[in-house]
Amino acid sequence: MTYALTLLTFFCIAIILAMSLNLVMGYTGRVSVAHGGFMAVGAYGTAWFAINAEMNLVWAMLVGAAVAGVVGWIFGAATARISGDEFILASFALQMVLIEMISRWASVTRGTYGLSGIPRPVLFGQRLSDVESFAAFVVVVTLLCGAFVLRLGHSTFGLALRGVRESERSMQALGRNTTSLKAVAFVIASCLAGIAGGLQASMVSFIHPDNFGVMVSIIVIAYLLVGGLGSMLGAALGAVMLLSIPEVIAATDWIPTNLLGPLERVLYGLALILFVWLRPQGLLPERPILNVARMRRRGLVTIPDPQEVTR
Amino acid sequence: MTTEPILSVRDLSVRFGGLKALDRVSLDVPRQRLTALIGPNGAGKSTLLNAVSGFCRPAAGTVIFRGQDISRIPPHHAVRVGMARTFQDLEVMQRLTVTENVLLGYGNQPAERLTRLFFTPLRTRRAHRATVQKTVDILARVGLLDRADSLASELSYGEQKLLTVARLLATDAELLMFDEPGAGLPAENLHQIGTLLREMVAEGRTVVLVDHNMDLVMSYADEITVLHHGQVIARGTPQEVRSDPSVIDVYFSRSKDSTAVPAGPEGGEDGAA
Question: Cα separation of A42 and A19, whole Å?
């Protein structure tokens, strides 16, 4: 039971990461490999404020998310005019810089010794020290984040982000400040990655720069490719699927447990290759945001009379 | 109707390196008229459209729109001051549906503002439904209603052209500029687009039409301006332009036998831009 709940919290953290990156990669079509870095900023921000300022972890987490958001805003503003391969490289550079900074800035982050003693949140006067209550907390946070991104993703705001992905020029011609749209999407994604980092820090109570390397960023991208780039539920499903693979294999004893660790990345790689090859749109492909036929069936729009059409 | 032109271009010059794409071009676009801009490939038609709508920066000259100097506005401000444009290479959002493409023509939607989405959800939803309804009305008007839920990429070339026209109908811009809406279209679609443009003028909008297709331009335009090598060489009614010796010299002499000067997506003009 404890193990299942621990697993559940990790699933939730992965879901938040996948959904938030989807806002950038699926919606605005910009591949970022800095998500692990933003998670790190959130984790260290949360840890620092929880330990040094003795803040309740709930608030520390929000501060950590805000710090990640500020970093995301600076980076987003600086890279607003580049896209494609250049943006991937820029985000890779950011990922490297962030992790390097955290490793070197030992007075704040304890560098490569890692930072320990990160507390659990206190809610209603109770510290959520046991796995059950903490898992419940993580699930609630994930549901809130999920509702938030679903609301964004299925609104005209999400549509505008997709519009930027499809044709930035025509979005400009239709009056959208595409630079700020891309930046806003990036800031939101960074904040959410920061929250995921905060949750992880509190969950394991010890964080190390290596927990947030570029491999983490790439695995989040793998979640999206498997689940369905551009689909929020697909992103969540992809995270659950890929995280389940090692668990399922461990449970079936196909591969000895001592080999499972090193094989994990191989399995991810295989899953990724298979998906991109056989089902490039992912498990749950991107769906249109508007469906006129459905709105018509529900009586939300009426089809005008052909005679009255030309006014 | 005021007599003052809605758009005045004064001595506008655009350079790409050593190339003078536009050389001191002056042009007045009268209100509630259909003004056409024609000229051979590389004459600077699309460049003029880009310079006016903020997509390229003029080296010199001014653009006055409704009495306001908009010479160096960023492209996304153009629709706010009241002008909207299409692109020669369509720039349709391929993986969005037809309805979604047109819906994005509406600016200032509450459903696009984060604060409105989360703090006034009910009012936002009502406004959103009204916008979708207006979008559906536009689709019915241009004849794309049965493709409402199709992805734009599933449309034929002609339907995609219609979609770019429909998208501008959704903006409330007073000046609509079309970059080659007729290029590569069969005759019946040309007529449909020409009729739509005339309707827009009848509704009180002003239309600028850049096209190669002489059928479309001659039958639907009120006034024609002819550009050649980045300079205005003639302007007038279709009849006047048709009989202007300098126009005949640079334009018609090369393709007397056909009514349409080579149409379709050509690289020359946009390649530089």
Answer: 16
